[in-house]
Each structure stands twice: as structure tokens, then as C-alpha cells.
Inverse folding.
């Protein structure tokens, strides 16, 4: 029985192409008590591998978080299998707007301590005491309310290319930082304001809303299913779209376009652009925004230094990397002193304190 797949990305891509099937990009999550994550992990791998499902799935004692690519022809069988697992019966599936057959190239099911690395100690607050879940229609209404404070729970490189109109977009690298910043800045408004929050697929708000209620916020709301599900509802029900730009996603597509607005700028020349690039230098891999002309001029690199390195023979590049460890830039997504046009939004909260 094959529980792990050993094919390279190139081999996987070739296989997918041969199969010639359209794939759906799907994500879902569920918080639930799971006694034996390892057992669930194996069960999912065996069954989904048979259905040619690809993606990245985290299983933990606290639940499951899955980003998937499912062959359209196998969708019904996949759904049936999900429904056969008691705690996943009728789980809400977030189905992407734009599909890409190569969104994922492998099936990886991993057992983790948590399904989101949120940095929270769950024993210190009641994680089940969540905010009110609202659909797109109610969300649109709420965010027009003058008593609402709308907060984007994602990180700076996500909200930079797209967010809801009038949302506060904390300039943070991690979810944990964002929680404290927002609490600090809204300290005076725990009772009189409505705290409305959203994220990509809804999972981060599940914990955040419970955390804020624990911290004394009286009116906490969260967008059910996040931006992905919001966009679906906008289309299905003909509602007004209040999201501008692109939704950053965690697969090869990197983002999906929601409105035609380009709200970000190339970090190198400042021209309007909203496409993320990973620096081509393997020792750097900085994630940053690059326009097409800089991409060409810089050979997909973030700096002339990186550009010089990628021109060296591969063995020499490897030699250079020795002992360096991973560059910090990998974790400082889109932050580097040599990128002159990366917007610094760290003072955005000042606008709230009037
Ligand atoms: Zn540029
Ligand atoms: Zn670089």
C-alpha cells in the first residue's frame, strides 16, 4: 500500500497533463475533537489517493484544514467520501473562482499539533465561544454600518494586493501579531463598536473571534467561509462586490482576481502591479511584487546581487549557500530594505485614534 508518493514535481505535472482532466481547487476546514489524527491521516490518504486528489492537508487533535485539487470527474465520489466521515458530513467546501490544474502537484496529508499555526495557547480561552457567522449579504450590510470596525485578519503581503473597502489591514507578518495590535488599538471600543473580521477561507477568524470575545469585545462578527466563499455568494446571488483587487491564496496560483482594480505597486519600480514573485535565487526566494518589465529586466530576481548569483554555475551557487542557512528574507515576505516601493503601513492604526 502506497502511503507516500515519491514522484518528483515534474513527473506529477506530466501525469496530470496526460490525464487531461479539469480539476477543481477546493478548500475546507473543521474544528472537531479527533482522537487519533494518525489514523484519520492514513484513511484520508488511501481514499483520496485513489480519487487522484492532490493538495496539502493538516490533521490535528483539534481538527482538519485542507487545500485540495480534485478532478472534476471525481468530485461526486470525493463528496460522498467526505460525507461518510461523521464530523465532515456536509462540511462547507470553499470552491475557488479560478481553477488551475496545477494548483497542487502532490497529495500531502500531515499530522500537526494545530491546523493553523496561530501562536495561541488554546487553554487560556474558550475556543468554542465564537463570533457570529455572517453570510455575504449580512456582511455587506454590516460593513456599511458607521459603528462597524472592519478588520482584515491576514498578513501584510495578503492584504496588500486586495482587501475589502475601508478595512483595517494590519502591517504584520504573523496572525499572532495582528491579534495584539488590533486589541490594543480598539481598547476603548470593546463595547460600543461592532468588530467585523474576515480572512481567506474563514479559519483564522474562528480562533480570532473567540479570542476577542475572551478579551471583552461584546459585538464580534466573522465572514463565514472568508473571501473565497464571499465571492461565490456575490456571483450566485448577484450581490454588490465590496472586495477590491486580488485574493491571495496558498497554492501555485498565489492569488485570484476578484475585481479589476490593481491596488498594489511593483516593489522595484513603483508602477501598478499585483503579481507576487519568488526571487529566482534559491538562497533568497523572497516573496515580493514585481511588474512584467522588472521581471524581464531583473530575470525574476529581487536584486542585482541575486541576479548575479543565478548566473553562476549551479555548483558554485550551492557552494555560496553553504553554512548560510535559510535567508531570513524567506520569512520576511516582501520586506527587504532594497525594495524601495514596499509600502509601510505600520502607522495605519493612527487613523483610528482620532
Ligand atoms: Zn517594476
Ligand atoms: Zn533575491
Amino acid at each position: 500500500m502506497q502511503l507516500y508518493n515519491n514522484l518528483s514535481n515534474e513527473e506529477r505535472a506530466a501525469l496530470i497533463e496526460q490525464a487531461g482532466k479539469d480539476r477543481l481547487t477546493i478548500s475546507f476546514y473543521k474544528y472537531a475533537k479527533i482522537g487519533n489524527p494518525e489514523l484519520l491521516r492514513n484513511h484520508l490518504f488511501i481514499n483520496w489517493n485513489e480519487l487522484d486528489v492532490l493538495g496539502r492537508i493538516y490533521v490535528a487533535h483539534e481538527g482538519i484544514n485542507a487545500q485540495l485539487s480534485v478532478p472534476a470527474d471525481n468530485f461526486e465520489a470525493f463528496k460522498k467520501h467526505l460525507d461518510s466521515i461523521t464530523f465532515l458530513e456536509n462540511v462547507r467546501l470553499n470552491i475557488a473562482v479560478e481553477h488551475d490544474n496545477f494548483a497542487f502537484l502532490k497529495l500531502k496529508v500531515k499530522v500537526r499539533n494545530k491546523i493553523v499555526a496561530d501562536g495561541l495557547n488554546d487553554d487560556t480561552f474558550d475556543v468554542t465561544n465564537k463570533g457570529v457567522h455572517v453570510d455575504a449579504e449580512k456582511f455587506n450590510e454590516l460593513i456599511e454600518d458607521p459603528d462597524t470596525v472592519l478588520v482584515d485578519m491576514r498578513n501584510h503581503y495578503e492584504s496588500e494586493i486586495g482587501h475589502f473597502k475601508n478595512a483595517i489591514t494590519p502591517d504584520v507578518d504573523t496572525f499572532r501579531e495582528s491579534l495584539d495590535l488590533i486589541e490594543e488599538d480598539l481598547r476603548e471600543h470593546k463595547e460600543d463598536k461592532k468588530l467585523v473580521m474576515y480572512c481567506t477561507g474563514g479559519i483564522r477568524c474562528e480562533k480570532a473571534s473567540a479570542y476577542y470575545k475572551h478579551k471583552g469585545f461584546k459585538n464580534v462578527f466573522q465572514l463565514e467561509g472568508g473571501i473565497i466563499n464571499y465571492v461565490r455568494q456575490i456571483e450566485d446571488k448577484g450581490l454588490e462586490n465590496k472586495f477590491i483587487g486580488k485574493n491571495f491564496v496558498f497554492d501555485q496560483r498565489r492569488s485570484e482576481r476578484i475585481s479589476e482594480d490593481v491596488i498594489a505597486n511593483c516593489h522595484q519600480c513603483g508602477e501598478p502591479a499585483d503579481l507576487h514573485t519568488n526571487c529566482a535565487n534559491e538562497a533568497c526566494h523572497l516573496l515580493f511584487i514585481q511588474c512584467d518589465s522588472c521581471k524581464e529586466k531583473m530575470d525574476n530576481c529581487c536584486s542585482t546581487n541575486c541576479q548575479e548569483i543565478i548566473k553562476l554555475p549551479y555548483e558554485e551557487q550551492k557552494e555560496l549557500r553553504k553554512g548560510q542557512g535559510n535567508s531570513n528574507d524567506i520569512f520576511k515576505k516582501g520586506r527587504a530594505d532594497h525594495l524601495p516601493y514596499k509600502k509601510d503601513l505600520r502607522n495605519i492604526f493612527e487613523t483610528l485614534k482620532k
Observations:
- Residues 17 and 95 are 22 Å apart (CA to CA).
- The first strand starts at residue 23 and ends at 31.
